[in-house]
Amino acid sequence: MSLSQAVDKSFLFWAIGLFLGLGMIWFLPWRFQTNDDVMMMWLVSGAYTGEPKPYAVFIHPWLSWLFSTIYSFFPEINWYGLTWFGVNFLSAFLLLKKIWSITFPAIQKHFWSLFIALISFHFAFFPQFTLIAGFAALAGLMVIWDSSLPRFRLWAFLALFMGLSIRWESVALISLGWGWAALVFLQVKDGFSISRGLLLISFAVFLALGKLAYEESFVSPDYLDFNQARSKVLDHPVFVQQSQEGAIPDSSDWFFVGSWMFEELPLNRADFLAKKQELNLHLFAWEAVGDGLIRLFRVQRTELFKSMLIGFLFLSFFATKTGGRQKALFLGLWLGFYLVFNHFNLLLGRVNLLFFLVLLFPVLQFPDSLVSRKLTAGLIVLLVLFLGIHTFNFFKEAQGRLAFQEEFDQMLSEENTECPLFLEGVMEYLFTDHFNQNHQVPFLSYGWISRSPMQKKAYEIRGFTSQREMDEFYLLAFQSPDPLIFPDYMNRISPGFTLQSELKSESLVLLHFVKSKSYSPGP
Known about the structure:
This protein is mainly alpha-helical. It is built from 21 helices and four strands. It has a four-stranded mixed β-sheet.
């Protein structure tokens, strides 16, 4: 057997293994990592508003429109999740092809194939649109400049196009990392083509102009302006820290904003922009520098699997046999940029991982490594161990979600209420039911969907137009000694609600609040 035949068979082994692995995960109780994906899926499928909506805020309008159209004809299929799985597979497939086209020793190729498979499986266990877009950008940029892979260039363009459509900011970050790597390590830009570069830029410009044109023509400008101002406060690192530490008095409207409850508070866009300026002043104190570092370590401590992946990336980067000055320059300035960015922005584990996935650009460019064959074999065993632990934790977490869904269904069947139901402390991604246009979401959410035309539509199909006009509501929460905030929020915007009844299960509590008929506001 020739070397090329062996390489082709090894690549085929990993590609088939990747496909089968993702296929198996599809039929497992995977969940989205954040509520953002869940809400966007519910919007485009019609599960939240009763009819598929062509606009989902974060992803590109052409993609959300396509989702809404397909869901209109085939509502029972999870097209949103299936697309994320598809982009995940395409990205990992391209990276595997890149790995098996490099002149690495075979054991290193197997190590990196397993590493990519781990990332792909993690993104399938817990899909998240920011990570899916960044993964697509990484794969696309790896392959698009590789002169040895011309047959896969079209797929690389597709990956980049989908990445830009899913979340352009992720593609911008990965592209910035590639650009910096190409400046420091000249080998990274081997095969660079101005024509292909201009085509990529045209993709980005075309999508950006299309998004702007669509939003100006079909989306409420009041909602767009408010949502942008809202994010500048709710995603501000100082505001998040103040909320977590209880530094905001409960007499302030901002106390409720910290829990994403602002639908009908007397706060407008100007109030949020003024609050942002106030928060920015705290960033220029020395204390804020330490707070940023502490926040960084806290985030990674709760994202241990991503921290493990980042650790392997660092180890591999330092083990490459290339100039020490180049490595110091690249990593020093990239880390500096990362820390400054972290200081002024709230970075979570998914963004932190994207920041360090760019280390693969130089790592996969230099075949010589300080890591011995024996140590590489040991690292492969370690990766397999991590995969086993991660899979075990996934099933354990999924079992808890299935139990939660059973409790929730039982409580709703016992209470059998038709009045509005809200959640507090219960994340939308916990629900294992596949809601769609024919099986609608039985509760209402708040957050970035607040004050949007989509939220108004959700209210209308449930028989009311605003929270203020409600005479009663239900609230689902986990049993906890901590006081609930949503009832106080409702009494802030529409006083007179009192607890009428409560229903408890093993871990949940369903509270029924009714507005007292004898209550009358003061003069």
